[in-house]
Amino acid sequence: MHQKPDGDAMGSTLALYHFMKGLGHETTVISPTNWADFLDWMPGIDTVVDFDKQKEKALLLINQATVIFCLDFNVLHRTKNMEQPLTEAVCTKVLIDHHQQPQEEAFTYGISDTSKSSTCEMVYDFIVNAGYSDNLTPEIAECLYTGVMTDTGSFRFPATSASVHRMVAVLKEKGLLHTKVHHHIYDNFLENRLRFIGYALVNRLEVLYEYNTACMYITRADLQRYNIKTGDTEGLVNYLLTIQGIKFGALVIDREGERKWSFRSKGDFDVNSFARKHFEGGGHVNAAGGRSSDSLEATYTKFKEVIKEYQNQLQ
Ligand code: 5GP
Ligand code: MN
Q1: What are phi and psi of 253, to 5 degrees?
Q2: Distance 114 CA to ligand 2 centre (A)
Q3: E-assigned strands of 87-166?
Q4: Which end of the chain has fewer beta carbons closer than 10 Å to its terminal beta carbon, N or C?
Q5: Contact 149, 181 (CB under 8 A)
Q6: Residue ranges per domain, the chain?
Q7: What angle do CA 267, 268, 270 make, to 5 degrees?
């Protein structure tokens, strides 16, 4: 899965883990980095190896593997420090992913389908199309639901097809408790996170009406002041698109070692291309990310400069 895994990355890998284990395979999930606290309840999460923290163990697993499934990322550098060991691994590498423009040569086999709501939906299709519907357990259902719920913005983004709803109906029949999943993911933060959002909206939001764009930056000091951890900033970028008429939302956070961008759009403004062209990133048409080695001020200034090229598209 990609670094700093979200609900879809963790959900799809853990679902596949439970499925493979059920078939008698020896299986381990490796995350390139740590993950958000709001994923810590997931069935099997206590078995996930954190590459950053348990490097030796992870390298041994990678070297001994017969098959490595690469889920919810398109290019190997999305796995951060795992890029090199994954590149060097000689085993079969299988990609299952829904991001744009996958690095095809890096994988032995793969399914890349950008029309899919989530990698979890693709893992579900993989299990069902292989004839194993009966092997869908309540644990697998919870993992799959986590990813499809988070990647579709709770079933509101355009990729939420009829098949997504059919899949959820099947998961319900398999014993899924969907309210429990929602509670764990969205209603389980500390007070500081809510106050941080309030602070950011009041002090760090800028609306560029001439470009129908809203942008926001978060400094290191902001993160420290509110004791913000991995996962606490997830969803913040979505507030930008709640303003009437705003088609493009951009958030940059001064993370350790790099400035990390999140881009969101409504309609046909393609943030995947935007992120690729200007901020070493990518993703989907309406949701993408990027990065910069510049200072926070420099990368934010660059954003406000390059946005000028898109005035016609955004109006
Ligand atoms: P987020 O803003 O939530 O971190 O990411 C939005 C989407 O873009 C996710 O699907 C994520 O996997 C993808 N994404 C985020 N950062 C990058 C990046 O640096 N490169 C690429 N290729 N995709 C990214
Ligand atoms: Mn995903």
Answers
A1: -120, 135
A2: 10
A3: 92-97, 109-112
A4: C
A5: yes
A6: 7-186, 191-314
A7: 120
Q: Which fold has domain 191-314?
A: Diaminopimelate Epimerase; Chain A, domain 1 (3.10.310)
User: Which homologous superfamily does the CATH classification assign to the domain defined by 7-186?
Assistant: inorganic pyrophosphatase (n-terminal core) (3.90.1640.10)
Cα–Cα dist 257/81, whole Å: 13
Find the 211 Cα to ligand 2 centroid distance in Å.
Answer: 28
Q: Give the distance, in angstroms, between the CA of residue 127 and the centroid of all CA atoms in the same chain.
A: 21
4 closest CA partner among 302, 296, 291, 295: 291
pTM of the model: 0.95
Structural tokens at position 107: 């994988």
Indicate whether 138 pLDDT > 90.
yes
Per-residue pLDDT tens digits for 16-53: 999 999 999 999 999 999 999 999 999 999 999 999 99
Of 73, 232, 262, the one to substitute when testing ligand 1's pocket (max ligand atoms within 8 A of C-beta) is 262
DSSP code of residue 209: G
Residue 44's SS3 state is coil
Spatial contact of 62 and 84, defined as CB atoms under 8 Å apart:
no
Tokens, residue 97: 């992913």
